[in-house]
Amino acid sequence: MGFRKTENYKNDDRIFLDRNDIFNMLEEDIIAYTNTDIFYMLYAFFGMGGIGKSRLVHRIYDLYKNGILEVYMIPLEILNHETIPSILLYIRKLFSYTPHFDYVLFRYWEFINYDRIDRKSLYNIVKKSGIDVVETIDNIIFNGIAHLKSGADFLIKLYEEREVSEQEREYVTDLLLGKSEDLYQYMVQSLAKDIERELYDNKYLFIFDAYNICEISTEYDWLCDFVNAFQKGLFIITSRESLRWFNDSDVDQALYKNIPLESIPAQVVENYLSEQGYSNTQICIIKEKTDCIPLFLDIILKSYKKEEINRDTFVGFKDKKDLVKWFLSHLSKEEQNIIEYLAVIKLFNEEVYDNVLDFNKLSCQQYGFENFEQSTIVRYIEKFNGLYKIHSILAHNITLLMKKELCHKIIKNYIQFTWARILNDFSMYDDIKYNFIINIYTLVIDQQMSITEKISEQLLDMYFYLYDRSYERDFTKYISEIQNIEKSSLNAIYKYIAGKSVRLSNISKGLKILESIPMNECAFGKHKKMLQCDMNYLLSILGQYDKAEIKMQEFARNLDRNERNQRYYAKGIIFDCDMKMLRGKFRSAVSGLLDLENDMVDNSILFEIQKAIGHIYRFNFLMEDAIEHYSKYDTFEKNSYYYTVYCETYCYSSPHLVFDIYEDAKKENQKYNNHNNLGKIYYAMAIAYILEADYILAKKYIKKSTDEFKKTKYRAGHIFVMITQAFLEYSQTQNISMSTVKSIINYIRELDNIYEYLLLPIYVARKDIAKIEEYKYKFEWFSFEETVQKIEKFIIRLQV
After folding, report:
1. Does a structural domain hold residue 314?
2. Are residues 443 and 520 in the same domain?
3. Rounded to the nearest 5°, which phi and psi values hold at 460?
4. What domain of life is recorded for the organism (predicted)?
5. What is the dihedral of CA 108, 112, 117, 122, to 10 degrees?
6. What's the pLDDT tens digit per position in 21-55?
7. What residues have CB less than 8 Å from 28, skipping those under 6 apart?
8. Which stretches does DSSP call E strand in 512-621?
9. pLDDT at 670 over 90
10. Is residue 720 part of a domain?
């Protein structure tokens, strides 16, 4: 590949003109550090892009890496986009034994999704730690003795036995249930303290290059806490803007140096150029056209022959953008096309590069990635973990020279490639895919693109990919902090993502956000039906059952079997069958679910179907059948749903089983702030305690259940509470008063008569033959006689 003067310059460092004042200052501090046990100093260099920050710290790294200091370089230009745990994991892998950080990291992986575990990182941690279980971990991770989950669980228990106190274990549990920023802060501080212990007898320098909190998936300023957690050491940070850390009154000004980097002094540039043999006229031209900014000095000096620099060459040059234009003009048209594409998309890897060639119809043999890596343009590219990024200032100036239509065409192609190839690359870790998706959403907003229905579908597919892998919280926070997103073409998508996030803790508010999306203007493509499906479901949760039922029936009726591979297809039918269940149309609901099952192959959907069927059998008081359906699929994990439905099922016959799994059930649901499930667990605990005749604890859990349902305004949950209170009344008095019955009936009527069949146990307890006979024909029971027999056994236990 061309990229001018490859052979001469491909290995050269970029132009660096000594900043002697900085090096002298740093050298004094290093001497002071070596002469004392306790020394702390933070250097913060800030300045515009291209001013030479990265060159400076790379020069510092090269100068001291083989000396008396342990020097650690952490490049953040690309890492900034990843989640904080991913950034911390990169730093952690530079060290041997960080047990407290490892423990909270493994607990975090356990909390979110084991699919997120980087197998190589897990193996690397174990081997570096020197833990005498490497052979066991080899088997677990690579030979499939169990699942990857088993390896992490094994290490969690090991750390709890060897390093982690009971207090720390409980504290981490509380953090996992709270705000993510609090958890991240603890991870940061744990890692810093573990590293400081490992480096206790060493002198060390940490260099963090290109820190940018605006690109992080949360507002939490992790690096501030990291460097502040150390008691000693030298730290260097570069950033575009001055760090906001130094504005607080409690900052010790003797322990930091906040240094702005500006253009190289003109005299220094003159001296350097004179030594290189440039004439006074050429020196004046170079200073004028580059403003003595290192990036542009490098471009003009390293890309062009000395004799090319004259007044005639620069006729018409108004600013540095023209210098970039001149730089591009020395490349072939094909090379320009490649650089323009990469400048627009900012983030790429080798696969994306190959797509650039396809986009421009160029030969892989002539312009392949290996040739690209050996070209001079690589001098202006950051590389990390298989990802590449052209220097942001150079990229920005290149895009200014391009027509907006071409930029948009390139981004659309980039989106298409990421959607079709990157998402389906099973060899690529999800953290890297997260980086690409974050980049794409940012590009759409920065370039003020209008998006087609097809692009909307692809962007939402990417969101659902992250959603299914527990990145939803980090991703939602990141895009919510992108400036002007509400004024962009992504506004509707943003509202959808925000509504789905908010509904987990506030159903009413989440529905309100979703309803604010104008359906007639919503260009979501296939995901428009998913939006409708979500809103229909939330209507039912909020108690608007008649309205939800009409919408669900219409939605399910209009589905085509050709849509069965779409997310909304199964959801729509399951929701419709769920509504049938609420009305007591048990047989019809199961029939619809079994028909759906014949169309599905995804185990997660098959589990949802069996879970729904399990609910139906449970409401028929056929508990053994319910458990059979809940447990049907081998992939059925002990998650929040598992624990909740098991509590709700066993509470009528086996209180001890409910007590056994209660703590796990509560913990699992608290992870996700699932107040509805917690309310169900608490009422199940109340029923279990009623059967044990412990009425004090039963009343306690009835109140806890009520409180949880109030938090999300889940009105149907109060039916379960009222029925439980009726059981308590019967167990204590051997009677359920008519006033209790009427209050339940009236409340059920307020909710459009859903769950009316739950009154059957009350009528059996009251021996109300007329009502029992009425209910026999009012609902689609599987076996009414068997259901009544099961209820009678439960009533007898309430009497004991």
Report:
1. yes
2. yes
3. -70, -35
4. Bacteria
5. 20
6. 888 888 999 899 988 888 999 999 988 877 778 88
7. none
8. none
9. no
10. no
321 and 409 housed in the same domain: no
- The residues with which 150 forms a beta bridge, in sequence order, are none
Q: How many other CB atoms are there within 10 angstroms of residue 38's CB atom?
A: 7
Bridge-based pairing state of the strands 256-260 and 40-46: parallel
DSSP three-state, residue 312: coil
Whether residue 772 has pLDDT greater than 90: yes
Tell me whether residue 352 is in a domain: yes
Which residue did the predictor score with more confidence, 62 or 308? 62
- Nearest Cα neighbor of 42 from 213, 249, 257, 253 is 257
Q: Cα dist. 765→522, 621, 770 in Å?
A: 52, 15, 13
Structure tokens of 517? 């999306």
Query: CA 535, CA 608: separation in Å to the nearest integer?
Result: 19
Within-domain flag for 483: yes
- Given 402, 436, 470, which residue is the final one in a domain? 402
d(CA 512, CA 377): 50
How many whole angstroms separate alpha carbon 313 and alpha carbon 292?
Answer: 19
Residue numbers of the domain that contains 470: 403-542
C-alpha span between 63 and 78 (Å, rounded)? 24
SS3 488: coil
The encoded tokens of residue 389 equal 């990024």
> In the structure encoding, which two tokens stand for residue 590, read together?
């199961």
Q: How far apart are CA 347 and CA 432, in angstroms?
A: 11
What is the per-residue DSSP string for 67-107? SSSEEEEEE-TTGGGS-HHHHHHHHHTTSS--HHHHHHHHH
**pTM over cut 0.85:** no
> Is 376 in the same domain as 497?
no
424 and 535 co-located in one domain: yes
Q: Are residues 398 and 468 in the same domain?
A: no
